[in-house]
Amino acid sequence: MKRLFLFSLLLLAACSPRESDRMVTIWHQMTPAERVILDDQIALFEHAHPGIQVRALYKETEELRSGFQAAALAGTGPELIYGPSDVLGSFQTMGIVQDMSPWFDESRQEEFLPQALTRLPSNNDPASKELLQVGDRIGNHLALVINRNLLQETPQTTEDLVRLAVEQTRDEDGDGRRERYGLVWNFVEPFFVIPFLTGHGSWIFTDEEGSTTPALDTPEAVAAYELVLSLQNEHKVIPANCDYETADALFKNGQAAMIINGDWSWGDYLANAEIDAEVVPLPVVASTGIPMGPMVATKGYSLNINAKEEQAGKAMELVRFLTSAEVQRVYMWSLKTLPSRKELLDDPLLQEDPTLKASAIQMANGRAMPVVAELRAIWDSMRPSYQALLGGSITAAEAAAKMQRDAVDSIRKMNQKLEPGLGATLIKGLGGLLLALGLFWALRSLHHMIKDWKHNRLAYVFILPSLLVLLLTIVFPFVYNVILSLSNMSLKHFQDWQVIGFQNYIEVFREAVFFSVLFKTVIWTAVNLVFHVGLGLLLAVMLNGPVVGKSIYRVLLIIPWAVPAYITALTWRGMFDYEYGAINLIASQYLNMPMVNWLGSPFEAFLACILTNIWLGFPFMMVIALGGMQGIPQELYEAARVDGASRGRQFFSITLPLLKPVLLPAVTLGAIWTFNNLNVVWLVSNGGEPSDQTHILVSYVYKAVFNLYRYGYGAALSMVIFFLLAIFSIGFLKKGRATQSVYG
Length: 744
Hints:
Helix content: 55-70%
CATH architecture of the largest domain: Orthogonal Bundle
Distance between the termini: 55 Å
Largest sheet: 8 strands, mixed
Strand content: 5-15%
Number of strands: 12
CATH class of the largest domain: Mainly Alpha
Structural class: alpha/beta
Oligomer: single chain
CATH topology of the largest domain: MetI-like fold
Number of helices: 29
Number of domains: 4
CATH superfamily of the largest domain: MetI-like
């Protein structure tokens, strides 16, 4: 049996590399309709290339970006990634994608439109450029889609757009709620406001070629923001806080006459039998005479730096197939996407199809999306001020000025190069000493373990796997995070980072935002805990008594805790919607209360997060308290009743003291979970919205790390959170004397 087991391991080890060598993995962010075509084309490729297997995995946009960065840093990851070209600037700076020119010579490149091939300066030789993406389509741009069942006229100017939107916005039953809107789009996101900026003659960077200097504070930009604001406040033709999902659902359900959306969505609208959709170019801005131009980007395939020559060759064979004229023609016919191959420009469909013709006009009116890492800082700097403008807390001029200041500061932080100081030498010396002491202790322990092995062999066999798991999942990540917190790992030092000292910790405490977010996190934790424990104890006392249907109540009350937090958070976000959420509908229609803009104002959005987390957290405390109560001897209550003690006196003199050994550890765990609860804040408030005013420390860490690539800073901030929670937990348990006997 032992030999058979070893043979099986050797067989698996021998087979696994060959199996992985045959596999080419793609991470992509395609829509469901695109995925159907991709799967069909992969099946055709595998049939023609029996020696290659392809695995296509869908990743949400942010998951793909952050996941690929982490995987590439670890020396793994997919051979290919598919998506828009805007991330290539950061990927190239990090050195995690490689030049595709060896597999795509000049003759092949000539077959594509120039904008379909993304080339960037080499990290080793800035004078030469590397081919980092081969696009299978051009566009990824916004246009106007009209429901011809509702609207026959096509707006030519923004004045027409406003007039038609006003005419199409209807409150048909007179209840104060609009059943139909003239225009919907995800206007709370900066990317979707770009056409208004370009139509007013503005742009996000200065006009110099290759410039990464922000140009967000201009009179033209202010005019663009005022136009969007007038659509919301003056003309009231767009729903408040309209995000992508809301806009998409309203248009598909025939509750909106027009929508501004990208070419990835047009196929769904055109195939929808309930609406007669037509894609048309965005109108001209009446005050400037300039067409509204969206950002235009290439979507295509990039090659992981970790793909070795043989695997890279197989991956590029797949890229050549997926970017071929035959495959592009399928996408063009099915999804109305613009091809990247020159030979398809003469395709009859491209010349005759009204959607593709409108798309080509819109693309010609657009501007190329910058392929620079600084674009990430632009989005993050625009979003808070833009949403504050929509919320009415600042003016358009103030918003533009703040965007510019924040963008300059964010780009500075993103490109900051920290060098080792005196602290680095001290840390390295201290680290060497600790390593020596650790090795000495490990050798002594190993010596004792070897001596004890003969007597307790079975015990070691059982415990060693657990120790290995603890080392890999807890000890190693913790130590690695400590080292990162002392390093300069960032966008500019992604793979060549080094220990620099305590500069990241100094930066954490130097920024005023840390203290404001910490205060908000303490409030968040305290309020949630009060309601978790209070409601949990109240319900536990009720269920511990003679209640009819006790089992049913227990099952119902445990549901909020049993349902995945991700689903619960998104459900509550839907219920908090200003126009269509259940909470406002019940409050206005049945309780005659005013509607609350839950997700559009900072205080109300933070309160919405708290209410959601209270719903998620009280069942845990209820179960813990109920279990503890059922272990309390009933004789104590009988004696108390004989002495004439009231129910309240019994609770405070018997129940609460005897629950302390159970409740205090649960409260400690609840505080830690709540303090670090990223899911609720991120999903309910959509990443700290509005205006980044609903962040707690853990969500602020996520933004600092993944949005601005400040990995060392984020690691330092996470260590600060760890020490805060460790101090609280130890102090709270000691002061509460949780382990002391209640009879002592």
